[in-house]
Amino acid sequence: MDLVARINSQFTESAQVKLNAMEVLAQPLARAGQLMAACLKGGGKILACGNGGSAGDAQHFSAELLNRFEMERPPLAAIALTTDSSTLTSIANDYSYDEVFSKQVTGLGREGDVLLAISTSGNSPNVLRAIEAAHARGMRVVALTGKQGGKMSGLLADGDINLCVPANSTARIQEVHLICLHCMCDVIDCLLLGVKQ
């Protein structure tokens, strides 16, 4: 087995998937960043959720907003719903794992807030429930998916934004999700700080 050739093919495939995704996602990413910037400017917050690698992405995004991305600015209101082990385990134990995000959205979300719902398949039951809870609270949803969007695509309402990576490999979808998160952070910073470039 030629490991170097295998690694080279991973890089090539990743780059090609990113280029394909750019054609599909640039416009909706701009809208997602605008939606989030307006939410934050109006005193709202962004709640983010996902499982596994997507949980890590939710935390990554929240950290970029609460601390900083590439420019100095005041902290922005963002909460990753994936980090409080006491809350997660108590909800999973007393109710079900399907409710671990939706109960938090119901308790923390307010009209005008935004839910960033991340699922590579678009079929994670607890993320689907979080979307339903967000809609019940008058929140908008930015869905970050792949594999044709799964069940999440059918749950989205007018005003929600579907960022569906045109790929089927979980690894490639996650790689594109990361650049999507960074693009949204950049748009938010540009709109809130007045960057013209």
Please provide a written account of the structure.
With 197 residues, the protein is of the alpha/beta class. It has a single domain, classed as Rossmann fold, CATH 3.40.50.10490. The protein contains 7 helices and 5 strands. The chain has helices at 3-41, 53-66, 85-94, 102-108, 125-136, 150-155, 170-193; strands at residues 46-49, 78-80, 114-118, 140-145, 161-164. Helix 1 packs parallel to helix 7, helix 2 packs parallel to helix 7 and helix 4 runs parallel beside helix 5.
Features:
197 residues, alpha/beta, Rossmann fold, 5-stranded parallel sheet, 57% helix, globular
Q: Regions with pLDDT < 50 over 5+ consecutive residues?
A: none
Tell me the name of the CATH class.
Alpha Beta
Classified in CATH, the superfamily is Glucose-6-phosphate isomerase like protein, domain 1
Output the number of helix runs: 7
Report the portion of residues in β strands: 5-15%
CATH architecture group name: 3-Layer(aba) Sandwich
- The succession of helices and strands, N to C, reads HEHEHHEHEHEH
Would you spell out the secondary-structure blueprint of this structure?
Blueprint: H1 3-41, E1 46-49, H2 53-66, E2 78-80, H3 85-94, H4 102-108, E3 114-118, H5 125-136, E4 140-145, H6 150-155, E5 161-164, H7 170-193
Parallel strand pairs: 1-2, 1-3, 3-4, 4-5
Helix pairs in contact: 1-7, 2-7, 4-5
